Amino acid sequence: MSTIPIILLAAGRSSRMGGTDKLMQKIDGQPLLRRTVKIARAVAPVIVALPPAPHPRHDALAGLDVRQVPVADAKEGMNASLRAALKHVPDTADAAMILLADLPDLTADDLAKVLRSVSENPGCLIWRGSASDGTPGHPVVFASCLFPQLRTLTGDSGAQSVVRAHRDKVHIEPLPGTHATRDLDTPRDWAAWRARRQAKN
């Protein structure tokens, strides 16, 4: 198992889902959130940023060996979750992987491939998964020297400003198809994804 922890950002409001929670949608009989955490946990320790309890997302993770981090100011956006989770990354960690919770096609092999790229490309500071056509996506690994910059971020823009500031130190690791880029934010996204998945099966 990797010594680089995975920070799973799962405190968002699912504001585009029309009143339902995208992370609680069922895939193979389990909520997307639980499924994603289990995939991540297969390759590295996991820190999950969550809305404050009580919340169904906490219940969805019952029995899993992960660090749950309630984010009091989750309404601020993604970077509140990132700041809160970073507090729980061990001081000995050389890097941390940032992973969104709504990427249903990512596999444990995909995550492991991006983690391996850290040691295979030691001259970089950021290692990022991409679609097979090179379109940048997730997950994204940040070297520990960038943690101070990540801790200053606010709002819902994610860490794109940090990536841009160090664009010459970014390694892109292609993953199969659109594994790194297909997220499910709306009911239409979910319906289309389920139809494609059923057609393949």
3D architecture notes:
The chain is α/β, with parallel strands linked by helices. It has a single domain (6-200), classed as Spore Coat Polysaccharide Biosynthesis Protein SpsA, Chain A. Helices cover 30% and strands 20% of the residues. The protein has seven helices and nine strands. The strands form two sheets. It has a seven-stranded mixed β-sheet with strand order 5-4-1-6-8-7-9, sandwiched between helices. The model has no long low-confidence stretch (mean pLDDT 93).
Task: Sum this structure up briefly.
The chain has 201 residues and is α/β, with parallel strands linked by helices. The protein has helices at residues 32-41, 56-60, 78-86, 108-120, 147-150, 160-165, 187-200; strands at residues 6-9, 26-27, 30-31, 46-50, 67-70, 95-100, 126-130, 136-143, 170-174. The protein has a seven-stranded mixed β-sheet, with helices on both faces. A two-stranded antiparallel ribbon has the order 2-3.
